């Protein structure tokens, strides 16, 4: 179908599909009273026409407040809740509405992007998302500004704006803290190997270990997901190694809590036999027993920066940088202590009671 020389309208799409404008509108709004065959045809034509919903209308003389979509790939957890809190606060200060959602249909990139625009979203903020080239292209076609927080992959498309923290510096500080306490057998238990934030934390860990002349034996670096259960299984695997680590630096607080549980199950005391450092400094870090030493990410500030940046992009303004990094800070609590002496459960070839 030849490209339309002017902005596509619902009437144009309806005429191409041989259906009514009302039917096209139902497809755009996700109504269920449309047959699968008709829905597929209309969605295909919307894609071909590069249809974009018109801008929101005004109510009287007052402009409708901007609405920003904050989208996650999975359920809210301690990490994402902090970011959302910061985003909501920043939205209130800017008189903007914040809508939080979990992505469900991003495999149909065109329909997903058009749906956001049709719903009146002025920009999209994606938290720890892995965005495909097709999704980025779909957002570009509908001209919806995008800001990514802690992206799991580094978008190759130029101009994608992201917000994160000084992950390398955080990994370096966490590992140096353990080295200063006399630990040399330090493991790293992180998130997905391809995640940009995880790679930076791992590089900080390796840089500190290399500078101290501390070796990293096989099995001491493990990738998983940023989840509690990965800490449990990953911690158990570390404790089965011939040389059990005396300290574990983890890629997030949830993983650290999982390692705490794995240590408890093996009869290891924290921090007497094993020191643990997390990353994020979410609320669960203070609730842990013992309270968790961790690297603080300014999560609420990251959410606020993302909203303010998204609003600037939605207004057509230029931003000073396409990537913003906020400073991290090591917070020392009760889960770290000097390395255990030789012969203790944390220094042998086994990991205490099985």
From TrEMBL:
Which superkingdom, per the lineage?
Bacteria
Q: Does the keyword Metal-binding apply?
A: no
Q: Could you tell me which residue ranges the HTH lacI-type domain spans? A: 8-63
Q: Which InterPro entries match?
A: HTH_LacI, LacI/GalR-like_sensor, Lambda_DNA-bd_dom_sf, Peripla_BP_I
Provide the GO MF annotations for this entry. Answer: DNA binding
Keywords from the named record: DNA-binding, Transcription, Transcription regulation
Composition bias of kind Gly residues appears in 345-354
Chain intervals for the UniProt region annotation (Disordered): 333-354
UniProt xrefs under Pfam families: LacI, Peripla_BP_3
Q: Which Gene3D superfamilies match?
A: 3.40.50.2300, lambda repressor-like DNA-binding domains
Q: Which PANTHER family match?
A: LACI-RELATED TRANSCRIPTIONAL REPRESSOR, LACTOSE OPERON REPRESSOR
Q: Could you identify this protein by its name?
A: LacI family DNA-binding transcriptional regulator
Q: What is the lineage of its organism?
A: Bacteria, Bacillati, Actinomycetota, Actinomycetes, Streptosporangiales
